[in-house]
Design goal:
This protein has 487 residues and is an alpha/beta fold. The protein contains 15 helices and 23 strands. The strands form 5 sheets. It has an 8-stranded mixed β-sheet with strand order 16-23-22-18-19-20-21-17. Strands 1, 2, 3, 4, 7 and 8 form a 6-stranded mixed β-sheet that branches.
Length: 487
């Protein structure tokens, strides 16, 4: 018998805050003799909020009460009580995730649903969520193709490269529509992000002008803006995106806007896709270039006019500005118990983000495997540092003793920064080898350790793990996949 539940998604971004309430219909798709496998059968959006500018108290502080007031008012307008909501997601994204009080805001909103996925999404995690929301990951898998997805919002352009349905690389550029703000009536500039000055300094240092066809002058607060005056800096942002996609030689412009603490290796791709608020301005920009009080419209127009992007293949996802989170957590309930290993674990464990390696990374030797894990741990770090997560592996059907030992050494070394930060090593394996892997890891690691199997997850999913049942031989597991509305 099908079950329905209400879910909510709340996205607090650099530019906008929005809320969506959906009804999810769940059904068990397993046969009567199998472990239940619950999936979303139908997804119906019941309420889409207005899109609000994210309230800020300063350039570094979010107005927590202002955000809460927006959410409360949208609940009132929707006609739903927060007690009716069974699950959902609150995600803080873009430059907003770097604000001083981001975690305070999450705490203030966590009471607005039952069992929330709550995350301060760094640029890497946001890249994954946006691509999945737009459908770029599915396109890559279905077409067996490479695709580079850009999620361009107010402060950042999040990049994710997908190959044959697998995530290969993530990155972030400080390119966005609200890096320069202006008064809509007078056109006078009211804010210029330090990113603009930093990029200009970088390009001067490497001896390259910001725009070959026009002299460049850094816009300053108080200037009266005009499209032609802003064109050089906007064109440079576009060229940075082109270099990131391997569609323009060199990388000096890309490096000028590369978000601090991130990296990106350009690779020519046959297909690109776009989401975020600026994506709306690529395909259907408003007539008034000052419509949003920033440079978003001009940036979208410039991307649309780029010969390099016009020459590349283009996938147009169903979602643009709502791609990151428009639904809530969809629950796929399962049991892990073919083989498990746990020691000193404080069950239950809730809302653990998944870090999944590619198949190629997983096949590496111990040293290469450890390096791949360390490289990707930062996907889930915020201003407060690393956070608890689950390392997901595919595993092997019949691994040799030597291979299990090499795998254990790679995992132990790779997760060392996580353990040093005070978090528990947790490994989820699709194949039935968690117990033997756990036994190999146990002498290499002190303290708590958990290995479970029979769990198929992807980066961007979250995991709940219940206390052991059936005499300690089975762990109840809930996989939470952020449910993206595709229609």
């Amino acid at each position: 018998m099908a079950e329905t539940l209400l879910s909510v998604g709340i996205d607090i971004g650099t530019s906008t805050t929005q809320l969506v309430i959906s009804r999810l219909t769940l059904e068990n798709r397993a046969n009567p003799f199998s472990v239940p496998k619950v999936a979303i059968a139908e997804r119906e959006v019941l309420y889409r909020s207005d899109i609000h500018f994210t309230p800020l108290l300063s350039d570094t502080v979010i107005d927590a009460q202002g955000v809460r007031a927006i959410v409360e008012e949208e609940y009132r307008k929707s006609g739903f009580d927060k007690g009716e909501i069974a699950t959902g997601a609150v995600i803080i994204t873009g430059e907003t995730a770097r604000k001083e009080n981001a975690r305070e805001v999450l705490s203030a909103l966590s009471a607005f649903a039952g069992d929330f996925v709550v995350a301060t999404a760094g640029p890497d995690l946001e890249s994954i969520l946006a691509a999945r929301g737009a459908g770029a990951d599915e396109y890559s898998g279905e077409k067996y193709a490479d695709i580079l997805h850009f999620d361009i919002g107010g402060g950042t352009a999040n990049l994710s490269l997908w190959s044959h349905g697998e995530l290969v690389q993530t990155g972030c550029l400080d390119v966005g529509g609200r890096l320069i703000k202006l008064d809509r009536d007078s056109g006078r500039i009211t804010y210029v992000s330090p990113v603009i000055t930093r990029a200009a300094g970088h390009l001067e240092h490497v001896g390259r002008g910001l725009a070959p066809a026009a002299p460049y002058r850094t816009p300053v607060v108080g200037d009266t803006a005009a499209p032609e005056a802003l064109a050089p800096v906007i064109q440079t942002m576009v060229e940075a995106l082109e270099q990131a996609a391997g569609l323009r030689p060199g990388r000096e412009r890309m490096d000028a806007f590369l978000t601090q603490g991130t990296r990106w290796e350009p690779r020519t791709v046959p297909v690109v896709s776009f989401s975020g608020g600026v994506a709306d301005c690529i395909d259907a920009p408003p007539d008034d270039w000052k419509a949003y009080g920033d440079i978003g419209v001009l940036l979208g127009r410039a991307i649309a006019a780029s010969p390099a992007f016009q020459a590349a293949g283009r996938f147009r996802g169903a979602e643009t500005i709502r791609a990151t989170v428009v639904g809530a957590g969809s629950h796929a309930t399962d049991l892990s118990g073919s083989t498990i290993f746990y020691r000193d674990i404080p069950f239950p464990l809730k809302n653990l983000p998944i870090l999944k390696l590619t198949a190629q990374e997983e096949r590496g030797d111990a040293a290469a495997l450890a390096q791949s894990i360390r490289d990707k741990l930062g996907w889930f770090a915020d201003e407060g540092g690393l956070s608890q997560l689950v390392l997901a592996l595919r595993g092997e059907d019949n691994p040799s003793y030597a291979r299990i030992q090499a795998l254990a050494r790679g995992v132990a070394d790779g997760l060392a920064p996580l353990r040093e930060a005070g978090f528990v090593p947790i490994v989820a394996v699709e194949c039935d080898q968690a117990k033997v892997l756990g036994q190999a890891l146990a002498p290499l690691l002190d303290g708590p350790l958990l290995c479970l199997d029979g769990v198929g997850v992807d980066s961007g999913d979250y995991l709940d793990i219940g206390a052991p049942v059936a005499g300690g031989t089975v762990l109840p597991v809930v996989i939470k996949t952020l449910a993206f509305q595709k229609s």
